[in-house]
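Predict the 3D structure for this chain.
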Amino acid sequence: MFTLYKKEVADYFSSFIGYACIGLFLLFTGLLLWVFPDTSILGYGYADLRNFFSIVPYVLMFLVPAVTMRTIAGEKNDGTFDLLMTWPLSAWQIIMAKFAGCLSIIILAILPTLLYYFSVYQLGNPIGNIDSGAVCGSFIGLILLSCGFISLGLLTSILSRNVIVAFLLAAFLCYFTFIGLLSLSQMMVSGFLSNFFASLALATHYDAISRGVADTRDLIYFLSFNVIILLLCKNSLGSGE
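Done. Predicted structure below.
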């Protein structure tokens, strides 16, 4: 399983696309935080990263599908899927190795953004005038949100033989589960249905964790979301064996 994990990470960085995706992610988030006037913290006037963390999920909706689209669909397209299935690994082990590989790549992309926190920390008046608890919660929320997006990306990659189709489907599902369900809840006349759809939205639980308040309900939600989607991945992969 560890061998497949290392292969997944190595394959991603063996091409220019891997570095380009992470580079574009850092470039775009940097421009959002420091350059674009509508989102620049320099124009905002407060040592606060809320604007940054409210925008990054939408960037991840494209970065994560770009990372996951080749996990299985690429194997099928390259003709190496049958070889993969001959490895002495169960369907669950293959899924978890692919998941861990993608998560490692996303964490490597997010990790440099810690520099933004340290920069804003120093820019505060006085120095350190920033809600570090909320920032810590937001970074944890980003990792948990990325896990959910990766699970969806793996599922679409398993269900498709075309990497572009896998990318587009994953981007749509990421958008729908993050903000689409929340928008749907606002259209409901019934208060019960409105609360129900809102509670299913990834954005609801991401926002709660980003406030720096630890709530086991949000953690249980993300865990349950990933388990359910990964079980669907396992069953879909197993049906193709």
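The chain has 13 helices and no strands.
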